Amino acid sequence: MAARTLLTAGITGVGMSYPDRIMTNHDLEKLVETNDQWIIERTGIRERRIADKGTGASFHGAKAALRALEHAGAKPEEVDQIIVPTVTPDMVFPATACLIADLIGATNAWGYDLEAACSGFLFALQNARAQVETGAAAKVLVIGSEVMSAILNWEDRNTCILFGDGAGAVLVESVDPGRGGIIDAVNGVDGKGAQFLYQTAGGSRVPASVESVQARQHFVHQEGREVFKFAVKGMAAVTEQVLARNGFTGEDVKLLVPHQANNRIIEATQRRIGLRDDQVIVTIDRFGNTTAASIPMALCVGREEGRLKEGDLVVLCAFGAGFTWGATLLRWTAA
Question: Is omega for the bond preceding 323 within 30 degrees of 0, making it cis?
């Protein structure tokens, strides 16, 4: 039997959605002992969006998905699969993907949630790519959607200043290889990093209880110095790896779209790859760290600002809890 010829998978549509409510650093000064200058100098964040109470990840995820479909000229009923990377699902089950499918009218789609923290979007994108390349699915929605404000301790100045809420979505389908498409991806995990960034309770090891709530175990906990150290090294290394093994250098890159966790991490990655400021997109100043929604939201901003053109060489990179990390190399196809 002859080997099956793989199709070329590419991003054909992007969309995002975020809450109207803006929380500035000055607003945070009223909640915890911090100040605007300190936050900007150490993170690059000036403001973030906060979802209304009771709003789940499906709400803005569905809006972002519809905008991605509109951009691609596709209809919800044409979608074959929905993958939702998130650490803040509406509920433990059913999957947020099921809820979004219902909200947007994707009546022919199946799907699931994927939990890989800040690297979740890249992991999900790789799954979507495999589905499209093999012909198992024609159109796959990848929707990073987070309501991080729901799992923050607003008395912990080390974490509450960092995160924001929002959603970003892309449609992945087969494209003409001459236009571009997803070229390569490198992903990895190391569970030894679990001790530095985690949420203790809510899973099977520590189910929700009066005791777990009183002990504040349902909030994000982070050892900032350790995470920063590994993130700086890991995000740059995986970006170098995916470029080098495909014969590219920083000079070839039109746009680096990094996970927006900390501006100093982004700058360190930029220096190591040898990129100019105009080769890197930064959105952390206006959205904070939106975890799995970070990269697709940044892609939307890049397109809106005219920084992405068909055929441009683009690198997406992330580092997150787990530890998890990844980099995806592609030529832009969402005109």
Answer: yes
Same domain, 25 and 164: yes
Residue 36 lies inside a defined structural domain of this protein: yes
Residue range 110-148, pLDDT digits in tens:
999 999 999 999 999 999 999 999 999 999 999 999 999
Q: How far is it, in rounded angstroms, from Cα 45 to Cα 276?
A: 21
Q: Which of 160, 259, 262, 317 is catalytic?
A: 259
Give the number of other CB atoms < 10 A from CB of residue 29. 14
Which pair of tokens denotes residue 36? Answer: 């605007």
Question: Which residues 6+ apart lie within 8 Å of 218 measured at CB?
Answer: 151, 199, 200, 201, 202, 208, 212
pLDDT digits (tens, 9 = 90+) for 71-93: 999 999 999 999 999 999 999 99
Residue with tokens 């991806």: 185
332 vs 335: CA distance, rounded Å = 8
Q: Is 98 a catalytic residue?
A: no
Give, to the nearest 10 degrees, the angle between helix 224-244 and helix 263-273.
30
Is 25 noted as a catalytic residue in this protein?
no
* Whether 263 is catalytic: no
2 DSSP assignment: P
Residue 64: C-alpha distances to residues 69, 142, 177 (Å): 9, 10, 27
Residue 4, domain member (yes or no): no
Tell me the β-bridge partners of 314: 255, 330
Radius of gyration of the chain (CA): 19
DSSP 280: B
List the domain range (segments joined by +) for residue 159: 9-174
Last residue of a domain, one of 127, 149, 174: 174
- Shared-domain flag, residues 228 and 273: yes
Q: Which residue among the candidates 25, 262, 263, 289 is catalytic per the annotation?
A: 289
Question: 249: left (phi > 0), else alpha (psi -120 to 50), else beta?
Answer: beta
Q: Is 177 helix (H, G, I), strand (E, B) or coil?
A: coil
* 210 in the same domain as 165: no
Task: Tell me which of 25, 71, 118, 262 is the catalytic residue.
Answer: 118
